[in-house]
Amino acid sequence: MASATSSESVDSELRCSICLETFVCPSTLSCGHSFCLRCLEAAWVTASSFSCPQCRATFPVRPQLRRNVALANLAEQLRVGDGMATAVVCDICGDGQTPAVKTCLRCEMSYCFSHFRPHLENPRLKDHAVVDPTASLDERRCRNHKRELEFYCTVDRSLVCSSCTIAGEHTGHKVLTLKDEHEKRKTRVGEETRAVEEKRKKAEESVKRMEAARKEAQESVAGIRGRITGKFARLRDALNEDEREALRRVAVKERELLSRIEEDIARHKREIGELQAAAARLRALQHERDSLAFLQVGSASVETPLGCPREQSGQWQRGSWCKERDPKEICTPTFHFTGRHHDPLP
């Protein structure tokens, strides 16, 4: 809250009491009050006497109006803080709009082209130091003597004014004019610029070489990737064909095996039926009490091996009918298939 009040107080002190705007080229009267230079001139155009618009203090003659540099700098800082900073304007025009083309360090004022012309034509003004338009003149003056910085001390490596070289702490030091030091450093900067440009060109050439190498590497990798993809695609096609052929052969073997197994099952079922009939006859014979009948019936049974089934041809297959196959031989098929990319199948 206190900070806001302080800011408002400073703002009010930097406003012209005539136009109520932030000072533009402020000028301070001997009574201590300040106004925009253009506002004062406008107020005195039709006045019969010259007086302060604020305190009404009168002056016997028209005061010489000069720009208050410190107050102008504060006003400019206020405009910067408020986002109102504009280009440097002519202090003589006083309209706050006409842009300045030069700033005179001796006069401490900025001029538009028409008002700067006297500095080009008047011999007494030609020796004034002029620079590009600037609103901050304090930076171009010596802090100790408030005079224009004109020299460069080579001993202390600092900017100094003429008073510093005569009666100040730089007395006896080797000094150069700002122009001479400027040219000297400009030459050195030119050499450094050329060195930097040379390094930049070499760096650009290196980048071009590396970019070319990157492109070549990318193309090489793309080619390798394409060859690998093509090779494995062909391998997959071949493997798929081998798989289909192997499965086809397995299916053929499966049909052959199942057919044999079905035949064996049917034969065994027939044998089981015949054996059951033979067992029934033998049980009946076992209970026969008549010796003659037993022997008559039993003689045929003795001639024929007990329990041996008869084939469809009616002939007994002695010794061969009861020989059974190994279940592994019946149920385990053997395949001999060799794919193009595989070991023989088990």
From TrEMBL:
Coiled coil: 193-285
Alphabetized Pfam families for the sequence: ANCHR-like_BBOX, TRIM_CC, zf-B_box, zf-RING_UBOX
Domain RING-type: 16-56
Keyword Metal-binding set for record: yes
Protein name per UniProt: E3 ubiquitin/ISG15 ligase TRIM25-like
Gene3D superfamilies recorded: 4.10.830.40, Classic Zinc Finger, Zinc/RING finger domain, C3HC4 (zinc finger)
Superkingdom of the organism of origin: Eukaryota
UniProt xrefs under InterPro entries: E3_ubiq-ligase_TRIM/RNF, TRIM8/14/16/25/29/45/65_CC, Znf-RING_euk, Znf_B-box, Znf_RING, Znf_RING/FYVE/PHD, Znf_RING_CS
B box-type domain location: 137-178
GO function terms (MF aspect): zinc ion binding
Keywords: Coiled coil, Metal-binding, Zinc, Zinc-finger
PANTHER family: B-BOX DOMAIN CONTAINING (PTHR25465), E3 UBIQUITIN-PROTEIN LIGASE TRIM65 (PTHR25465:SF14)
